[in-house]
């Protein structure tokens, strides 16, 4: 990656309706490992806040990689019905990273 290449970060909160909290947790959790294996994914993290909101943090090498991810049928099925599962619209942010992305150190064998 050259200095002019800037990864894209997508992050935000989702507040599930109480009756869908377990379903949302399962769905979001099921996306973690497959997403981390996708070409262009640099980071993908899911957190559960103490107030019941879920926080997602994603970093992608390019818009093209993110678009390819967002077009996956399993993700589309979830996103197309998102308003059913949530109490309010997602609080989401999409930004270009200003700091350089540091490749992770290899895990020692």
From TrEMBL:
The keyword Magnesium does not apply. It holds the Pfam family ABM. Residues 8-94 form the ABM domain. GO terms for molecular function: monooxygenase activity. Keywords: Monooxygenase, Oxidoreductase. The keyword Oxidoreductase applies. Gene3D superfamilies: 3.30.70.100. This is Antibiotic biosynthesis monooxygenase. It comes from Embleya scabrispora.
């Amino acid at each position: 990656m050259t200095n002019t290449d800037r990864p894209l970060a997508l992050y935000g909160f989702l507040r599930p309706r109480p009756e869908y909290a377990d379903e949302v947790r399962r769905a979001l959790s099921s996306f973690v490992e497959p997403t981390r294996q996708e070409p262009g994914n640099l980071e993908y993290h899911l957190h559960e806040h103490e107030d019941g909101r879920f926080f997602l943090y994603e970093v992608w090498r390019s818009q093209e990689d993110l678009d390819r991810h967002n077009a996956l049928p399993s993700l589309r099925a979830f996103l197309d019905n998102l308003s059913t599962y949530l109490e309010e619209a997602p609080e989401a942010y999409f930004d270009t990273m200003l700091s350089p992305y540091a490749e992770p150190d290899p895990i020692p064998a």
